[in-house]
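Entry 12.
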Amino acid sequence: MGTEKTHYQVLGVSVGASADEIRRAYRERMRAVHPDINVNSTNESQRMTELSIAWKTLSSPQLRRAYDASLFVSNSSFVGTNFRDGEPVVSYTPARFPWRGMIIATVIAAVLVLISHALTSPSTPRPIDQLLSSGSCVNIDSSLSAVEISCTEPHDAVVEQLIALDRSCPLEMGQFKDRQGMGVVCVLPARPIPGAQLPGIPG
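Predicted 3D structure (tokens):
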């Protein structure tokens, strides 16, 4: 059975990587899967989606803490099982107080608290570095390219996803160029944009 890659493995960084290391890795890998470079690749859209999800999670301190805790729980679930000749052999011990179960239950509860906190509390604003991902706020310039700005300022649209240049956005979303040429930006409009026709809002 295949093993799903972690967000750290998708970006090619260690679990202890700094925010700058994660940002550099995301930028390098997004450029590596760009259609102009990967002309023979057929799965660049899937890789771009994986990279965007990994970046969105690991670039947010709250989401990263919750994700790290979930990895700990996942790794702990296999403790106490031995393998011999490909067959699982469960080790039986005399009945005793279920400390392991209590610890795992406590960790799971902590993960739920962290996730709840990350979803309900105001998140720390990410730096405006033009690395667009889902949730980024953008203005549309005269060349119909998406330019990232702070979500605390008036903005034209919010990014829903970043896709390959040969793909099209869903009909209910606006489609614009990524200013750094990393793909096509699919957005939901926040206000009318001069010179652009967005679904649901007259240009």
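Annotation: Strands lie at 81-84, 87-90, 137-140, 145-149, 157-163, 174-178, 184-189. The CA atoms of residues 58 and 64 lie 5 Å apart.
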